């Protein structure tokens, strides 16, 4: 540890939503919190109504909901009423295509206005929204489209040609592709379809338990899993944004998370809009000067970003931050991977504000553990459980688990089910979903400890999924793609610690006879992986003709990682001898 707590005393003009943590936690109930939502006029609950339509029918009608900056810095603004009408049009487009309740609609897009229209219009139609990461290569895109039974894809001509066109015949469920721009053969123009659609739409009856969102994640095997979320999740999105991000209606909010991941949906679309804020959307890639300009020029008050980005800003020095007027900024939060204590303290020095870490997963749908505006920060800690969330440290043998009450004991972080945004299943994999629960706990797969004051501290993953720049990378997926190269007989993939992105993907490759381990082949394999996998491809490749295996033939990634980092190899009783 070694880091002094950052003492919090509220002195600002904006009173924190969670001003008294012990009292709020003691008095909170999800049933009472539901009164914060409007509900559909005829009964039921729909995410689009809570995020957009109810504001458009009231005093926030003409308030800017989205200010979308393109790569040149030009901004397009959509008021809440603009967003209502645009999402109505998209819902009508879906209806005209025969897409209805429960049908999956995916986006393969960057931060463009059409993504937000598609997301909200899809759930308004009671269809299911499934975001895809635009930097994925063709194989990850195909696997997710296939697993999700996606019927409609919204993308760009460039991404369609690079990621989807050659795979289209292998995706019989994919009936319609809408492109933003000139449509290639076999696709439709997004703009043309929208122009023909009415801007009036009545949201159909929607139950809080109706499926609304499908987020893809990776597990121990690395095969993508589709985590199912429902319309009722909007309650957790709304409450946690108030408590963990301290969002108020007057805020100008910027979430830098890629819209292809769960953070970019839960806190980059739904949660902020339910609070009626003005949301900044910036299409540009990371650039220290550019990001500070966004914070300054847009007068951002609440900023939610990733540890990788903060570490990169930290490398640029506190002096750079001080060149910009960041006086509007009042709250900074971070998520996606563990946040270094140094970054928390750097925020205080460079931004005049500490960075508030928080923890959650694709499966939890919303923030579960957080540092709060009015509570002390312990640098390096995930913080305290959200009101309405019961967390614990458990240990077990796979058949049963018990809660560990000893302070500082390391075990698996677990949650008691019952919060509204808890995932309701893995699509087409009921058995895998059932294994996520044991003895009344949801098992997160993360190792953690809890200090005597109730603060939680992340230790690491219980499996070997790699977190790189906030993205989950499944080793199996990378290994499988590499083995498609004619020179590769086998591969093992690990995450190698990196001070900027958390972990970089490193592959150990066994070559087929007749191929030599040259620098040229290494470069070729890296390029091959990039073409197939996109941003999650390996950044480093090492040749190894003697990969360690278990007796059942599996590559021992744990052993590869230990040897790479010079750590103890631990139990090697399952190591195959003589291979």
UniProtKB/TrEMBL annotation:
Q: Which gene encodes it?
A: acsA
Q: Which domain of life is it from?
A: Bacteria
Tell me which UniProt keywords the record has, alphabetically.
Answer: Acetylation, ATP-binding, Ligase, Nucleotide-binding
Supply the source organism for this entry. Answer: Lentzea rhizosphaerae
Enumerate the spans annotated as AMP-dependent synthetase/ligase domain: 55-427
Q: Which Pfam families match?
A: AMP-binding (PF00501), AMP-binding_C (PF13193)
E.C. code: 6.2.1.1
Name of the protein described by the UniProt record: acetate--CoA ligase
Under the heading PANTHER family, the entry gives: ACETYL-COENZYME A SYNTHETASE, ACETYL-COENZYME A SYNTHETASE 1
InterPro entries, per this entry?
AMP-bd_C (IPR025110), AMP-bd_C_sf (IPR045851), AMP-binding_CS (IPR020845), AMP-dep_synth/lig_dom (IPR000873), ANL_N_sf (IPR042099)
């Amino acid at each position: 540890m070694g880091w002094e707590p950052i003492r919090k005393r509220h002195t600002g003009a904006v009173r924190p939503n969670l001003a008294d943590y012990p009292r709020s936690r003691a008095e909170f109930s999800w049933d009472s919190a539901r009164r914060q939502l409007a509900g559909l006029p005829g009964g039921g609950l729909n995410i689009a109504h809570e995020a957009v339509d109810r504001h458009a029918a009231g005093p926030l009608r003409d308030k800017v909901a989205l200010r979308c900056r393109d790569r040149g810095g030009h901004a397009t603004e959509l008021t809440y009423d603009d967003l209502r009408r645009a999402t109505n049009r998209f819902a009508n487009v879906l209806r005209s295509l025969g897409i209805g309740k429960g049908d999956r609609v995916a986006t393969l897009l960057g931060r463009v206005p059409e993504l937000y229209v598609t997301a909200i219009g899809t759930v308004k139609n009671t269809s299911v929204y499934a975001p895809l990461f635009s930097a994925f290569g063709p194989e990850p895109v195909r696997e997710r489209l296939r697993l999700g039974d996606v019927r409609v894809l919204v993308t760009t001509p460039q991404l369609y040609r690079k990621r989807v066109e050659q795979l289209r015949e292998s995706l019989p469920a994919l009936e319609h592709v809408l492109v933003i721009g000139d449509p290639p053969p076999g696709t439709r123009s997004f703009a043309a379809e929208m122009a023909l659609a009415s801007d009036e739409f009545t949201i159909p009856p929607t139950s809080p338990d109706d499926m609304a969102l499908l987020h893809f994640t990776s597990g121990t095997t690395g095969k993508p899993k589709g985590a199912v979320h429902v319309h009722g999740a909007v309650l957790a999105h709304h409450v946690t944004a108030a408590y963990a991000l301290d969002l108020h209606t007057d805020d100008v909010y910027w979430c830098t998370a890629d819209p292809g991941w769960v953070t970019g949906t839960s806190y980059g679309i739904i949660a902020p809009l339910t609070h009626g804020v003005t949301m900044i959307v910036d299409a540009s890639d990371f650039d220290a000067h550019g990001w500070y300009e966004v914070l300054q020029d847009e007068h951002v008050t609440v900023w939610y970003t990733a540890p990788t980005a903060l570490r990169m800003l930290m490398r640029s020095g506190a002096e750079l931050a001080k060149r910009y007027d960041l006086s509007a900024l009042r709250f900074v939060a971070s998520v996606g991977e563990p946040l270094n204590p140094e970054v928390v303290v750097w925020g205080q020095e460079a931004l005049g504000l500490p960075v508030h870490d928080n923890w959650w997963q694709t499966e939890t749908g919303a923030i579960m553990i957080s540092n709060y505006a009015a509570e002390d920060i312990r640098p390096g800690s995930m913080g305290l459980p959200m009101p309405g969330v019961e967390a614990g440290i458990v240990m077990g043998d796979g058949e049963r688990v018990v809660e560990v009450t000893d302070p500082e004991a390391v075990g698996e972080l677990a949650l008691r089910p019952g919060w509204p945004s808890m995932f309701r299943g893995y699509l087409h994999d009921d058995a895998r979903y059932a294994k996520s629960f044991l003895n009344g706990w949801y098992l997160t797969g993360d190792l953690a400890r809890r200090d005597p004051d109730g603060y939680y501290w992340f230790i690491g993953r219980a499996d070997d999924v790699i977190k790189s720049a906030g993205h989950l990378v499944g080793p199996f997926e990378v290994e499988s793609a590499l083995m498609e190269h004619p020179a590769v007989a086998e591969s093992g993939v690990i995450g190698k610690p990196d001070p900027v992105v958390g972990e970089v993907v490193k592959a150990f490759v066994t070559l087929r006879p007749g191929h030599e381990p040259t620098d040229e082949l290494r470069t070729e394999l890296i390029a091959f992986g990039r073409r197939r996998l996109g941003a999650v491809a390996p950044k480093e490749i090492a040749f190894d003709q003697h990969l360690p295996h278990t007796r059942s033939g599996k590559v021992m990634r744990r052993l590869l990682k230990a040897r790479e980092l010079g750590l103890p190899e631990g139990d090697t009783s399952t190591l195959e001898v003589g291979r």
